[in-house]
Amino acid sequence: MVGPHALSIDVEHWYDATLATRPAAAQPEFARREIEAVLELLAAHGAKATFFVLGHLAQELPASVRAIADAGHEIGCHGMTHDLLWQMGEQRFRHEVAAAKAVLEDLTGHAVRGYRAATWSLDARSPWAPAALLDLGFTYDSSVFPLRTPLYGVAGAPLKPYRLRAGAGALLELPPAVGSLLGLRVPFAGGMYWRLLPTGLVLGGLRGEGTRVLYAHPWEVAPGGWSLPASSGVVARFSMGFGRRHLRQVLLGLLRQVTFLPLGLVAAKLPDDQLEDWTFVDGSLVRSGH
Ligand SMILES: [Zn+2]
Questions:
Q1: How far apart are CA 173 and CA 261, in angstroms?
Q2: Cα of 89 from ligand 1 centre, angstroms
Q3: pTM to 2 decimal places
Q4: Count of domains in the chain?
Q5: For residue 82, how far is its CA from the centre of ligand 1 (angstroms)?
Q6: Ligand 1: distance of its center to the CA of 81 in Å?
Q7: What is the 78 CA–ligand 1 centroid distance (Å)?
Q8: I need a surface site. Which of 4, 13, 123, 226 has the fewest CB within 10 A?
């Protein structure tokens, strides 16, 4: 077996995705079925993951969140709404994340220690986020995408886990899997990237040194019957619709060959003295001293 590596599932409705057109009314039944299917898939392969759950979804589907925790997976926080950090601003961010964390902890009876920003929106436009997460009791984050894309990411951010410093404290940052090939950064972390890459290439990236963080959404692994509205644009159709069957095949291939652990367990095993310190300064992420 390859690994261990860390698997994360970002739990949200299909229409929470940034590019999706929202339906007129909530459709929680789709997510309920999708979560059930993902839990069955992981159980069949003995894999444990971190489920970063959206607070709004947890309020609609409390039994599904309890089922995730009861199956031995870690519950992390994906915010209350799926709005982007740099659009909502610091005060609303603090308010929403505190509320979402409380909902998840009340449901499961366990402290929530890990955070994943909607659409990797923790970047240089939200440099206040690490301090806010520390204040709210989080110990690790997995939201800084180490590659700048049109939607998100931080160019030059570390590919390996590091300490994301804020004032006197630091969060452990567990970046999504991005490899380096001929000087270029190649993302193979999950989601849309898995729909574009052969399984062998993803597996190849996982055979290297260190623990990698992967991710997928229930709405793409096990679509529960939803379909994009006819009014959806070509970008949404491509980013949400293309290659879902292939993505499922990639995940199945990985589950057969890779040992997966929740991010919290991976974080606990990292040798603290080997981690670099980085911090957001004047709109950039820079390496810093102790
Ligand atoms: Zn999300």
A1: 16
A2: 18
A3: 0.96
A4: 1
A5: 6
A6: 9
A7: 7
A8: 4
Outline where the chain has alpha helix (H): 28-44, 55-60, 62-70, 85-108, 129-135, 191-196, 199-206, 218-221, 234-236, 244-257, 263-269
In degrees rounded to 5, what are phi and psi of residue 268?
A: -65, -25
Per the structure, the complete domain to which residue 27 belongs is given by: 2-288
What CATH number does the domain containing 87 carry?
3.20.20.370
Ligand 1 centroid, distance to 85 Cα (angstroms): 12
The 10s digit of each residue's pLDDT in 210-264 is 999 999 999 999 988 888 888 888 888 888 888 889 999 999 999 999 999 999 9
Cα 118 to ligand 1 centroid, rounded to whole Å: 4
Tokens of 178: 């991005």
For residue 178, give the amino acid letter.
V
Kindly give the distance from the C-alpha atom of residue 11 to the centroid of ligand 1, in angstroms, as a whole number: 7
Give CA–CA dist 251/68, Å, rounded.
18
Task: Give the Å distance between the CA of 16 and the centre of ligand 1.
Answer: 7
pLDDT in tens, 1-50: 998 999 999 999 999 988 888 888 888 999 999 999 999 999 999 999 99
Supply 161's token pair: 């886990």
Environment of ion ligand 1 (residues, CB < 5 A):
10, 12, 118
